[in-house]
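G., before I forget:
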Amino acid sequence: MHALTANRMSVDAWDQFSWHKERPMSQNLANATKVALFSMLVVTVWVLPAGADDPLPSWNDGPSKTAIVDFVSRVTEETSPDFVPVAERIAVFDNDGTLWCEQPLYVQAAFVVDRVKTLTPQHPEWRELEPFKSLLKGDVEGVVAQGEKGIAALMMATHSGISVDEFNTIVSDWIATARHPKTGKPYTAMVYQPMLEVLAHLRNKGFKTYIVTGGGVDFVRPWAEQAYGIPPEQVIGSRGKLKFELQDGSPVLMKLAEVDLIDDGPGKPVGIGQAIGRRPLMAFGNSDGDIQMLQWTTLPRGAADHSPRFALIVHHTDAEREWAYDRNSHIGKLDKSLDEAAVRGWTVVDMKNEWKEVFPQ
Amino acid sequence: MHALTANRMSVDAWDQFSWHKERPMSQNLANATKVALFSMLVVTVWVLPAGADDPLPSWNDGPSKTAIVDFVSRVTEETSPDFVPVAERIAVFDNDGTLWCEQPLYVQAAFVVDRVKTLTPQHPEWRELEPFKSLLKGDVEGVVAQGEKGIAALMMATHSGISVDEFNTIVSDWIATARHPKTGKPYTAMVYQPMLEVLAHLRNKGFKTYIVTGGGVDFVRPWAEQAYGIPPEQVIGSRGKLKFELQDGSPVLMKLAEVDLIDDGPGKPVGIGQAIGRRPLMAFGNSDGDIQMLQWTTLPRGAADHSPRFALIVHHTDAEREWAYDRNSHIGKLDKSLDEAAVRGWTVVDMKNEWKEVFPQ
């Protein structure tokens, strides 16, 4: 779950902004490439099965692991009555809180803060203009007081008026150097090891794995292949409008300051419908922003489509190794989906008890 | 190229509507499945290479065949200095006039006419309401006189207010029974054999092949896998807005009467940017509606991206076996792109002289 709206972002979370140190934007592409290659290597090693036949070695034996492994066998073994052809094996994953850590604040929000700081020398007027003024002073309440309009202004200032290619480079440089405020690790090292194993297991079984994120599609695409093995064309996300232009004869796609899709809540099935054009077989989420995606995936039996469907919710129950939050959280609120999971038979992962590891070692 | 706007559709083309016979909408799914399986079989047989080593047996030896085969070798042979990793091998294809016949009128327009006739008993008011009244009378000038607003009304009446799943079924049934007005063949038999061979050759070499059509994405997806081997998630096209709804607890995606993307001209790079998120390596088109897609693909050398790029235009020069048209055509107008092709070094196929076969035998 992830939508950069003020009402979902707590004062506590915004407070964490101060944990970030000022970092000059590195333009050193060679360095970024080294980090990228290293990440790729690390991911490759991580996803190799530790046990000979266990596709999910970081999962304790328990109901969730059994549910995943059994469902995958059921739809991929040719003798199974529920066999599904490879072409229809689509699995969709929320990103924030499902594939990587979304606490104490969305990673994209940390990017926005850093980006505003980087851009302020070119926009001296921001020092006296809200919500920039409050953000630059670290005055969280001042930013929140500007409401959704303030958040929109921050998003537009940091996510538009440049080409998709330029933005891609900026994000790639940032993700290579930025660090999580609490652990000091790169954000791409704060992905969930058990979920990397699910992604790898599904791909081994012929699935196409997609990210369907409330975050910006252009924010996630630059690093998703290295972090998760998911190529840009399998990342669906929120987006602004794009415009094709010839600049001195060179074609560019410009990012406009206008929302095109909020890929959150009811926007997730819409994003899936636009990009994939068929109903996923499996869906993975962690919050109420994923509820419609999970509903869309698990069509009730009795309707036209009788094929087996699977939905899973990552329940953050581990305050020691990660964070514990659900019904009243400001980020990743998991309330209605927990009730819906009980009604619809969705698998709910008890992170504390079912995950041997949380992050890659 | 394909956009259902009045100014691009000639009176001559609309005249062809009368060639269509009234056909009851077949709800016989079993029958549709049989036709589908048969089409798949036929496509499979077609794309098998006729010659042992010739990936493009329906192409005469000539500059276009050489350009395609050489470029593909150049980017896929590991020892080549222009080698491109599999993940970046993206090829995009316009549909109407590039992969299948767009004369004497866009296939989707024929669908609209049939659909209006089918729906009229439920909408008796259409008999007195333009543009339906003129269309039902076969009065082409009357329809054209309604301008873009009239076309939009026809599109909305036939393409919205139902779910994506329902629309999919309607299109699948229609494509299984509809016939080309001149040849009497199914439309899916009027695909271009030489282009099927290009699609197969590229996929054999690790490319992902995409359709990027000005036509409706929901109109093309239901049959693109059978006709071209292109799955729904690799079809990009024009689309209306979608809305997620629970109907009696069942999730549906409804097609709204509001345009979301016109995937034509400058909209094609936008559609590619939204769905793929990286620049294609090869692009294939046939009209001015494809010019920006071909520009976007073949970034001028000297810019940031130095990798090799390929663009091709199908030039319809064969009045005997198909149609001959270019600079002043009402459908598939090829004017500026021909000039641009000369400047940018795009490959232009002389259909009459370079294609051994046009349609599958």
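The first helix of chain A runs from residue 11 to 15. The beta strands of chain A are 90-93, 208-216, 235-247, 250-261, 282-285, 310-317, 324-325, 347-350.

More on Monday.
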